[in-house]
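Summary for the steering committee. The consortium agreed at its last meeting that each partner would contribute one worked example illustrating the joint modelling workflow. Our contribution is presented below. We chose a case with several input lines so that the handling of multiple components could be demonstrated. No manual editing was applied between input and output; the record is shown as generated.
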Amino acid sequence: MKPTAEQQCAAIRQQLADYNYQYYVLDAPTVPDAEYDRLYRELQKLEQQFPEFITQDSPTQRVGGAPLAKFAQVQHRLPMLSLDNAFAAEDLSAFSKRMRDRLDLSGEFSFCCEPKLDGLAVSIRYENGQLVQAATRGDGYTGEDITSNIRTIRAIPLQLKGESIPAVLEVRGEVFMPLAGFARLNEQARQRGDKLFANPRNAAAGSLRQLDPAITATRPLMFYAYAVGQVEDPTQLLDSACHYQRLQQLKQWGLPVCPEIQLVTGESAVLDYYQQILTRRAELAYEIDGVVIKVSNLAQQQALGFVARAPRWAIAFKFPAQEMLTTLLDVDFQVGRTGAITPVARLEPVSVGGVTVSNATLHNQDEINRLGVQIGDKVIIRRAGDVIPQIVGVVLEQRPEHAVPVQFPSRCPVCQAHIERVSGEAVARCSGGLSCQAQLKESLKHFVSRKALDIDGLGDKLVEQLVDHALVKAPADIFALDMPSLLGLERMAEKSALKLLQAIKQAKTTTLARFIYALGIREVGEATALNLATHFASLDALAQASNEQLLAVSDVGSVVAEHLGHFFAEPHNQAVVADLLAQGVHWPAMSKVAATEQPLAGQTVVLTGTLQSMGRDEAKALLQRLGAKVSGSVSAKTHVVVAGDNAGSKLVKANELNVPVWDEADMLQLFQQHGLVDA
Ligand SMILES: NC(=O)c1ccc[n+]([C@@H]2O[C@H](COP(=O)([O-])OP(=O)(O)OC[C@H]3O[C@@H](n4cnc5c(N)ncnc54)[C@H](O)[C@@H]3O)[C@@H](O)[C@H]2O)c1
Ligand SMILES: [Zn+2]
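What follows is the complete predicted structure of the assembly.
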């Protein structure tokens, strides 16, 4: 039987009450705000249709949650209310129209536009400029006494400064946790194996509502004031001000106020503000979930007054939610270049922060265990700023009966080799090496990439085809490719095959640094490869280097040294290298310059423009071997500027300052003289 409207209302109210309790009292919500908001709107709609079913305790009529008994209680002299929400421009026009009708006004409103900080509301009471009490919002009428905790937040003055401070001033604002602090706090918790905070709001609420203020003191909390509550002020300074001016006044008394706040006229300016803040959302140091639009004129505010749980003169214009609920459809296991197995969540596509998300990384087995996630679960996806989407939680209450635990494979899904997990490391790896097609493909993609051997026209798709057709089983096979084998591939015409063979031939001439990088040794990036090349000057010297010799290279620590040692000790890798050399891969010989032979010692050199014979980094490394300090900007202290093609302002500056200028040939000549490159 279909439930009646009254039963439906009751069921939603109960569900929202549970969510409220988890969110406000426990500081541990189980569903994203967007899910709460969806259900809330459903209730609002039902209640609009059937006003007879509205109850006093409906979440649409009340604010927040009951204060925790473990804190002393504080009665708010003026209630601390919530805000109505707008989700689209239409909601904003409706808001303006409602107010205009009520006030019988035809002109535009002055709106104070403020970021909607995602933290928790607090009230701070100053008497004669001294902080005497602080409280949470609680249920809007009664809050929790958190005075000692608030006193630990350095941004909040204990004593106001300046002139005409009211006898009593109740400041309202948001306590929140900046994103950097949130990331740090969670990283520490992860290292200790503790539970993580789902988002900065929960972290702020959980940190502030501690019985022990010493704990609060260690948490990176911040505060911005956004309103004035009760005032007793013989000078009546605040009475004649508008809301925006009041905030400016609070700032003068030493209270932090958000610098993004703006006073604007009319609705279209509000939309501009919304857009502008939305564009900059990811740049802000703290999380916001929208903007708050307030009528700034206090007489108008007064005339508009309040409804059940929110003022009529303000609205929260929400941004697209950064956390959404969706379903985990499956987990795939991807094999990376070094064999690392990464579980990837396949999700029911969902729009998060304005972008459709259908995959999210699950990192590793530890992460899966920590989340306790099962296939079929409802999961919370978070996508904040440019950070890749994450699964931050599971809604256990909504786990379906058919949910199945995620089975981490014991064999590589591609080559069936054993998966190894080094104790103390979170990563599991396929032990197949280059005999694993997945690792082979990723290694080859790396091998031919721009900063490695840089083979033009050998893109990812083609690499996969070459491996799938068994034309390439190791990097050296690339150099054995010929016309007939290439023409056997789909969509490969003679002309492009010819071009590709040409590019492959050209790539045989490379540099030692590129070659080392191309080998894909773990944690040996471009910069490290270059350092190794300049330091050892030959592949043999590098391959035979002892651990101590490796550690002597700048940028090489014990982990990298160990990876290098392992790599070159492995017969399989020795064969890969030998085959490449046998195929004619080569590079200009480099001789090690004796330490005494440093003709550029003590000189500052600036490189500018495009070089023809080598990259900027290579030139820099060679200059450094000759003793030069390579700098990025030209000054009177510069000894030489090396100008390649299209040199611009640095060359102009060098000429202005009479700094000697070399062209590329001058530099090459010096390198040749010292045997750094072939003549
Ligand atoms: N996930 C859950 O289970 C769950 C449960 C309950 C509530 N919630 C979330 O909380 C919302 C309701 O909470 P609420 O009543 O605190 O309302 P709200 O967060 O939507 O808006 C009111 C609050 O905004 C804050 N605020 C931030 N910047 C402000 C500014 N410049 N001026 C004025 N206020 C500012 C204040 O703390 C104020 O109390 C819901 O819409 C939902 O998103 C989620
Ligand atoms: Zn494998």
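The pocket of nicotinamide-adenine-dinucleotide (ligand 1) is lined by residues 19-20, 22-23, 29, 31-33, 36-37, 63-64, 82-83, 114, 116-117, 120-121, 137, 174, 226, 292, 316 (CB under 6 Å). The CA atoms of residues 449 and 455 lie 7 Å apart.
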